[in-house]
Design brief:
Length: 86
Amino acid sequence: MTKVEITEKILTILTEDFEFERPGLTDNLRDVHGFDSIDAIELLGKIEITILGFPLTREEKEKAMTIRTINDIVNYIEDIKRSRSK
């Protein structure tokens, strides 16, 4: 899956499941959209199922808690995929 495809998937999840309206790739999700830790956990579950196809480790999930933007999410997913493909 390319970076563009990952970005499109994340945007779809955020607009359909979290009812974001026109999220910007650099928006601070917490400040601009009220995204909280419960939302983050739900999003991680959706990422595991729809994008990665495998469960994240506890360490990978903890690392995700520092994410603030959609670009951060996309980079995070790419990093996970790269580290798992070694």
